[in-house]
Amino acid sequence: MLKYRAPLPHFNCKSKFDKIYEENLNNGSFKRINNRKNNEIRDMFIKLGEDENFGSSCFYSLGNTKILTTVYGPNPDSKYATYSKGKVFLDVKSLNINTIGASDRQRDDDIKSLLIECISNIILLEKYPQCSIKIKCLIIQDDGGCLSATLTCISLALIKAQIQMKDIIISININSIICPVTKKMYHLVDLDGMEEKYYQSKYEMNSITLGICLNLKTVCFYHGTGSFFNSKTLAEITSYGECACKSLGSEIKKVLKQYTKKRIDSIYQKVNVLE
Amino acid sequence: MSSLNYIEDSINCNIRIDGRTLLTYRSIEINKNILVSGDGSSSVINEENNVICGIKLSLITPDVDTYDEGNVNLQIDCPASVAANRIKKDHLQTMTTIIYNLCIKNNINKKILCILPGKFAWSVDINVMVLNAGGGLLDIISIAIYVALKDTFFPIVKPKKEIEEENTFHEISNKDYQLEIVENEHVNFPYENIPICISIGEINNKYIYDMSKVEEELVQNIFVVAITSKGKCVAFHKLYGISMEISSILNITENSSKISHTLFDKIHQALDKIHANM
Predict the structure, then answer these.
(1) Which domain, by its residues, includes B54?
(2) Does residue B194 fall inside a structural domain?
């Protein structure tokens, strides 16, 4: 029995995160705990489709954050919509197995309340009088950056549903961290859930969710919480986030072009078969 | 339509239809301690808005995940039978979320609200009743919450440990606690870091503070900034419209720190008047 015992760790053994933390303090640089660069975005996957109830859907994942959005409409609705303008209804749900500690319902209502104004203003509601558009979001997995991923997913689902919009929205979250020794500020793009919890407990952190109209180059969503905002740091953070949104937007444009090409090819095949 | 053009032209000439400049706030009437049954209360009135805020403290058992933290809840209501100018329920929910995220969520140290970890903690319920709603309602609600939290006092509560005597199992010791309130002593609510909201409207590249209801319908973008009494910007949210440039956001946050000093001075002057009258 004695020979099967595992050796105990040494008394000053440190975890991997603490090693990276001490390395960041000793050197002047900053290294993330998951070995990404400061401006690196997680892997993105988009799938556009339909469901059986004639709604258009979009599945959007950014790393391990996965969102599914379905858009129904525009449907005639004489009860809620006014004579001159349509109305947008947004419903956000998240699967209950995801969250640890946070209250599900309150967070879903927070996301819905923050996003409904932005979505209502991006859609040309004057084109749909006496109609309502229903948007349902399902947060399948939340690994950080949930608010920005939901906004991008809604925008892509509205494109799939061919609802007339002013522009496509690309959204990203940026976090600013102050090193406690050197007082230097680092801007990190697209944190995941583990990084969010760890940096929140170790450093003083600002968090900004930035949504940009891709072609108009204007800001359509801008939400930040933290403790040390001023105009100089905001200028740095915003330009950093703008570059990140542009690079993410170019990737999304490629995916949409491929999707459109597939659709056109399938239409031509059907025409050839008929002839 | 011509009256709207008239308002736009006057804003381009740096004056508004009630004679104010673009940066001036209207006079605000602040009352506090208006509800004797509440632990803290306030009432804030200006020309278009009338808001009552009440705060109630209660003892709860904290959750397992946040065992050493208290709880802060916010609810904003607009009763249909009382209010002359009403808001829709969806807009109220949006305003509740925005004020909770900007003013309350990260700015109250919830560990102070804990009495005994895992056993007893304070739960702070903030109820805001909107009796009249016009332009700039977010500012008035945040001022009401700030004044009410400043008026809130916690009684000092000390837990006493007692061991139950009827104990059949020898090894298991059942322990229970009783709370004892120390009379005539209380501590302040930690209100120093609580910000107030300043909403800024953009119309034809001009920035309007403290918008009236007509001006709120005219503006193209609304930006809300939360600033503490030390002049620090702790949160912001862009509320309306999609055509805001990035450079204008930086101008707005810079100007808002200056405006917030005058606004806090107004609040403190009103509170000093109340103290002088008492």
Answers:
(1) 3-163+174-276
(2) yes
| DSSP string of B78-107, one letter each residue | --TTT-SS---HHHHHHHHHHHIIIIITTT
Residues 6+ apart with CB under 8 A from B72: B104, B108, B110, B113, B123, B124, B126
How many Å lie between the alpha carbon of B224 and the closest alpha carbon of chain A? 9
Burial (CB count <10 Å: 0-12, 13-18, 19+), residue B160: exposed
What is the fold of A42-271?
Ribosomal Protein S5; domain 2 (3.30.230)
**H helix intervals, chain A:** 16-26, 104-122, 146-160, 193-202, 231-274
The model's pLDDT over A48-90, given as tens digits with 9 standing for 90+, comes to 887 666 688 999 998 989 899 989 878 887 776 676 878 888 9
Structure tokens at B31: 């009352």
CB < 8 Å to A80, chain B: none
Distance between the two ends of chain A, CA-based, in angstroms? 80
Lowest mean pLDDT among A58-62, B136-140, B183-187: B183-187
Separation of first and last alpha carbons in chain B: 49
| Alpha-carbon gap, residue A270 to A97, rounded angstroms | 43
Residue B217, C-beta contacts closer than 8 angstroms, at least 6 positions apart = none
Domain with residue B14: its CATH number is 3.30.230.70
Give the confidence band of A191 by pLDDT, cuts at 50, 70, 90.
confident
Q: Is residue B62 part of a domain?
A: yes
Number of domains in chain B: 1
Give me the phi and psi of B80, to 5 degrees please.
-75, -25
> Does B80 reside within a domain?
yes
Burial class (CB in 10 A: 0-12, 13-18, 19+), B243: middle
For A73, A87, A159, A247, B147, the CA distances from A127, given in Å and listed in that order, are 13, 11, 15, 31, 45
Chain A nearest-CA distance from B98, in A, is: 7
Residue B168 lies in a domain: no
Find how far residue B225's CA is from the centre of its chain: 13
Cα separation, B211 vs B18, whole angstroms? 11
Q: Is A72 within 8 Å of chain B by CB?
A: no
A103: left (phi over 0), alpha (psi -120 to 50) or beta: beta
> Of all helices (H) and strands (E), which one includes residue B266?
helix B246-277
Q: Where are the domains of chain A?
A: 42-271
Nearest CA in chain B to A168: B242
Residues listed for chain B: 278
Of B212, B194, B197, B198, the C-alpha closest to B46 is B212
| Whether A219 contacts B245, CB under 8 Å | yes
**ipTM for this model:** 0.78
Of B97, B223, B250, the CB nearest to A110: B97
Q: What is the pLDDT of residues A119-175, one digit of tens each?
A: 988 899 888 988 889 898 989 888 889 899 999 999 999 998 989 888 889 998 888
Q: How far is A183 from chain B (nearest CA, A)?
A: 18
